[in-house]
Every structure is written in structure tokens, then in C-alpha cells.
Amino acid sequence: MKREKVQGVVRCLVEQVVIPCVLACSILVPYRADAEIIERIVAVVNEDIITLSELKAISLPYLARMKANYSATYGEEEIKETERQILNQLIDEKLVNQEADRLKLEVTEKEVARATREVRDRAQLTEEQFEQALAEDGMTIESYQEQLRAEMKKMRLIDQEIKAKVYVTKKEIDEYYKMHRDEYNAPPEVRLQQILLIIPAESTPQEVEQTRERAEQIRAAIKQGEDFNAMVKSYSQDSTAATGGDMGVFRQGELFSALDEAAFTLMVGEVSPVIQTPKGFHIIRVLDKKDRQKMTEEEQRDEIDALLYNQKVEDAFKQWIKELKKKSYVVINL
To answer: Are 312 and 168 in contact (CB under 8 A)?
Structure first.
């Protein structure tokens, strides 16, 4: 379903000088068409603020989906923790945007328009269909492009401030190759992405069956065209959900037997049936499969180079954000 595909993309993109006493002020304002919230400031990030309505604009649609599917297990504490996590992400985004502005990094209208066309073309939608799909997700073309611009600016900042300063030496590649050489003659490997619905230890048989039914509904939606990445973000209860459900790479025989059989039977891009393990109900998708024995030494070194580089970039970004927070004025009042 084309409209569902673009809504998945939209969800995946969804990512003044203030005196501290202002945190105490609040006014009653409408939120969308069917709800009211007490408007207040939930965070101050240097010269910017984050309001409760901004937080709710992201958290309410997410929590509504979670409530519909996990009403029996998703309680008040989980909701609060979800909002804290979303708020922390919004704070990081504010800091990144402020730093991008300080460095005068720009994304032109032409670049945003080109990126928008690429998203629309991938979804195979006309302009009218695209705007209708955005509207059904609570967005206008203008608000969508603002989010897209912010994401493009963030990637430009990471390229300039992080990636440009990260490099992998020949010595590091040599050392890694020597330590892991035997792994390149190991059994076939597969890289997986998953949606996991956890079965709590105290679950009754009826609750287990309800969880299975929810998993089957999620898989059915994916088979009908829903974006797998968006479904991971909306429904997966695994810790890997924060990184898009990427489980990493596994050798044959390292997974639960049911998962292992499915993983090495599926083709790249294929989605498994619902699989039950002691941990819960899994829906997996194969991201990549490789036969290590067929890789040349040059291919192995290229892969090691990319692996070490990505690890360094991730570590550098986490440290960069940490240092940026230390230098910034951040107050949370959630």
C-alpha cells in the first residue's frame, strides 16, 4: 500500500532566551481536534524551549498505538519512561540544531525539494496522494519538509564534525584481522532485524495467546505494505528497537533453533512468520547474508575498515553529544 509506505517514512523521520521561573507558568490550550493539555515548558535547552504540546505531538500517537496493542502490559510507569526517552531525544535534536546554526550549516530549498521528490518517487505517489498521506499522519507538506530539513542539517553536521575527524589506520585493520581471521572461515552468517513482543514470566496461557495474536496482526500489516522499520519503532519491545530493530550478525547455530532455521532459509529482504521462543514472539527480516568462506582477504579488510569506522563514528557522536550537554544549559521539568 503506497500510502502506508510513505506514512512509514514519515513516522521514521519522526526524530528565545528563557528565564528559569517561566517553567512554572501554564495555560490551557487545545491539542489537535480531540484533546486538551495544560501547556507548559518541559525543558529548556540553552535559548530554546520544549513545550508539553511538542512532546505530546510525538508521544500521544505513539502511546495510542501502544495502548491499542498492549493495554494489558503497558502501564503508567512505562508511559512516563517513554515520554522521558522521547524528551531526551528532543533535547539532543535541539542541541544538534543549535550547533548546526552556530556553524552556519544550511540546507537549501532546492535540496529539501529534491529530497522530498525522492521520498515521493520511492513511494510511487503523485503530489496529491503524497500530501493526502501526510495529512492522514497529521502533517502538512510544510511541516514535513521542516522535519526533513532538520534531519538533513543533522547529517551534514555529523559529516563535518564527526565523520571528517574519524579514520581507521592500517595498523588497526591489521590487528583486527589477525584477531578475527578465523571468523572469516566460519559458517555462513546473517544480519537480522526483528520485532519482538515479550512474554512476561507471569503470563497466563490466555495472555500468551493474546500476544501471539498481536504479533500475527503486525506481520499481516507488514505483508500488506506497512513499512517494517516503522513497525519496529511502533511495536517492538526489544532493546534493539532504539536502533531500528537491528539484531546484528549471527553465525549459523548461534540463535534459538526456530529463529536459526528461519534466518538461514529466508532470502535477503524476506520477512519470517511469527516465531515463538522462550523470550517471546519474533518477526524477523533478513538484512544481509554472507558466506565468509568466499570473501577474499581484500574484501575482508574492506569490511573490517567499514566496521571499525562505523563503531568509531557512533562512539564519537555519543561523546560529542555528551560534551555538548556539559557546555549547555539544560533544565528538565517533565
So the answer is: yes
Q: Could you tell me the end-to-end alpha-carbon distance of the chain, in angstroms, rounded to an integer?
A: 38
Q: Where are the domains of the chain?
A: 2-161, 189-290
Domain 189-290, architecture per CATH: Roll (3.10)
Angstrom distance (rounded) from CA 150 to CA 106: 10
The contacts of residue 266 (CB under 8 Å, 6+ apart) are: 272, 284, 285, 286
Model confidence over 241-257: pLDDT tens digits?
Answer: 877 889 989 988 888 88
Residue type, 276: Q
Residue 252 amino acid letter: Q
User: Residue 252 and residue 254: Cα distance in Å, rounded?
Assistant: 6
Q: Is 226 within 8 Å of 81 (Cβ atoms)?
A: no
Dihedral Cα 179, 185, 188, 192, nearest 10 deg: 10
By DSSP bridging, strand 246-251 and strand 48-51 are unpaired
Please provide the size of the chain in residues. Answer: 334
Q: Tell me the three state secondary structure of residue 68.
A: helix
Q: Cα separation of 85 and 79, whole Å?
A: 10
Q: Are 24 and 333 in contact (CB under 8 A)?
A: no
- Taking only the tens place, the pLDDT of each residue in 180-239 is 877 766 678 899 999 999 988 778 888 889 999 999 999 999 999 889 988 998 899 887
| Closest to 10 in 3D by CA, of 143, 154, 165, 196 | 143
Q: Is the domain 2-161 a CATH 1.10.4030.10 member?
A: yes
In whole angstroms, give the CA distance from residue 31 to residue 54: 10
